[in-house]
Write a structure and sequence with these properties.
heterodimer; A: Beta Polymerase, domain 2; two-stranded parallel ribbon; 3 helices; globular; B: alpha+beta; Cytochrome-c3 Hydrogenase, chain B; four-stranded antiparallel β-sheet; 7 strands
Chain lengths: ~160, ~400
């Protein structure tokens, strides 16, 4: 059984050019990878016997409008036998928000990717059924993006400095 | 040329074969919630199913980005409303993890009591509804009395019943009142008898066994691939329980058994939940007997609201009260993932903070949203009445599914 630092070393060695950074984190070690390599890295983490992250706990999107790669996809993987978790992040540009689907590896990713597409408009390449899941199908925007305010933006009677964001 | 009926699908390779489409839901009495299944049927046999979800989507993740941390808890209530205290306390623990607050044993044990009570209500509903859907209404009426008794205990503890909003970041709003302890003791004395009665009704009942064994099975490998957690995964034979693998809230102080099944069918799911009920009773009894002395909240004045009478008389209390109510609790920037064993699986909170008064991003890992995907695979080839039983044994809660 290898511990988390060893795993990070193995991954760093195997995918030297694809890993952008390794973020120290208090709870789960997280690595930021390029969007073109995310499928290969997750496949490696799942199938390699030393790493063995065979369980996809969570997949979600995140939006940083200030960044030049504004859309992120966050994967949480879990090695159930050794009880180790890892967080993989990848960022994609606004013009082409596209990553490869991990549905062939994890059936669980199907709806989670659809949910991410539904809320952020991130396209999962080769996804078997990429359409909206929680919102209505004719919605013409992606509601979790930061530019869509929760409240009516033309409202003038309320000063947002005093009421959260 | 005849007009094509969209509800009748004719397979091109076999033109004699006519499949019918059946809408199960959105509001069907047997689905126990608002979700739709479009079934393609060959007579009584299900060929394929497609689920439509999102009927009660309320944009909790978007709302959470606009709200101070303590105002997010009422949103978690409304996810898995059969076991809302687990969601509440899971959220508290997530924020405590980000803030670096360590809770005392007393708070941990109080939380265990409440979370296990919630697990009992959740499993009681799920298991008795399996009975109802197979035609045995009697057990349901008996165990619902006990669920009512548990809701009365919640009422004594926090004043609410279904959407409890129980606890605070850093502990509880008050200690357990004596009336709650009294009712809890009465419940613990009564519940084993009721459970035994309930098990006698169903567990070795020939009709119930015939209806549930080998109905909606899933292998351990497929269940893991589909992201199953909780009793559904354990019924397939994988002993994964967040309470044991990543102990939170001092669960490691207690000795309890994680039941596992073998086939992952409806009967196994029923039996796993039934055994978890017994383990929950044991856990509550142990936590209640070993309850340490001490305060019911951590001494974190910048996060935990001061007593109301101090607010009117003391300067510091007034300042803290104002800052907490306005959401200025000084959350550091960072990200955490925290998970608890919810009623139907691993309930996770992925929280990203940029140091502001609201979360930058909050994602709920809702267990039934993830495992409900497997439903078509589980019912393919079975008959309609088995699909109903499979669905109720999966414990899919519409509020959690759609968030």
């Amino acid at each position: 059984m290898a511990d988390t630092n060893d795993i990070l070393e193995i991954v760093k060695k195997r995918f030297e050019t694809e890993i952008i950074s390794v973020e120290p984190s208090s709870d789960i070690p997280s690595i930021v990878v390029t969007s073109s390599s995310v499928y290969n890295i997750i496949e490696f983490l799942k199938n390699d016997k030393d790493t063995g992250y065979e369980f996809l706990t969570d997949l979600c999107g995140i939006h940083y409008p200030e960044s030049n790669l504004p859309f992120g996809v966050v994967y949480h993987l879990h090695n159930l036998a050794d009880n180790r978790r890892i967080r993989i992040k990848t960022f994609v540009p606004l013009e082409k928000p596209e990553v490869a689907t991990v549905t062939p590896l994890f059936s669980a990713a199907n709806w989670m990717e659809r949910e991410t597409y539904d809320f952020y408009g991130i396209v999962f390449r080769d996804h078997p059924n990429l359409k909206r899941i929680l919102n209505v199908e004719f919605l013409d925007f992606f509601p979790m993006r930061k530019e869509y305010p929760l409240e009516d933006p033309t409202r003038e009677d309320k000063d947002n400095r005093f009421f959260g964001r | 040329m005849p007009v094509k009926d969209p509800h009748i699908i004719i397979q091109p390779e076999d033109t004699d074969k006519v499949y019918t489409t059946l809408n199960l839901g959105p509001t069907h009495p047997a689905t126990h919630g608002i979700f739709q299944n479009i079934l393609t049927m060959d007579g009584e046999i299900i060929i394929d199913a497609e689920q439509t979800v999102g009927y009660i989507h309320r944009a909790f993740e978007k709302i959470a980005e606009q709200r101070p941390y303590y105002q997010i808890k009422p949103l978690t209530d409304r996810m898995n409303y059969c076991s809302s205290p687990i969601n509440n306390i899971g959220w508290d623990m997530t924020v405590e993890k980000l803030l670096g607050i360590e809770t005392s044993k007393k708070i941990d044990y109080m939380r265990i009591i409440i979370m296990e009570l919630a697990r009992i209500t959740d499993h009681l509903i799920c298991n008795s509804v399996i009975g109802v859907d197979s035609g045995a209404l009697t057990g349901f009426t008996y165990v619902f009395q006990e669920r009512e008794a548990i809701y009365e205990i919640y009422e004594e503890m926090c004043g609410a019943r279904l959407t409890t909003n129980m606890g605070r970041i850093g502990g509880f709003e008050r200690d357990f009142p004596p009336a709650a302890i009294k009712k809890l003791n009465e419940l613990l004395d009564r519940l084993p008898k009721v459970l035994r009665e309930f098990e006698k009704l169903l567990m070795r009942n020939r009709i119930f066994m015939d209806r549930t064994i080998n109905v909606g099975p899933i292998s351990a490998e497929r269940a893991l691939n589909y992201g199953f957690t909780g009793p559904n995964l354990r019924a397939a034979g994988v002993d994964y329980d967040v309470r044991v693998t990543t102990p939170y809230s001092s669960y490691d102080d207690f000795d309890f058994v994680i039941p596992v099944g073998t086939n992952g069918d409806t009967y196994d799911r029923f039996c796993v939940r039934q055994e978890e009920l017994w383990q929950s009773i044991k856990l509550i009894r142990n936590a209640l007997d070993n309850m340490p002395e001490g305060s019911y909240h951590v001494d974190v004045p910048s996060v935990f609201l001061p007593p109301k009478e101090d607010v009117y008389g003391k300067m510091e209390a007034l300042i803290y009260h104002f800052k907490i109510v306005m959401g200025e609790i000084g959350v550091p920037a960072g990200e955490v993932y925290h998970s608890v064993e919810g009623g139907n699986g691993e309930l996770g909170f992925y929280l990203v903070s940029d140091g502001g008064r609201t979360p930058y991003r909050l994602h709920f890992r809702r267990p039934c949203f993830i495992y409900y995907q497997a439903f078509p695979e589980m019912i393919r080839g079975s008959v309609l009445s088995d699909a109903i039983l499979t669905m109720s044994s999966m414990n899919v809660i519409a509020g959690e599914l759609d968030a």
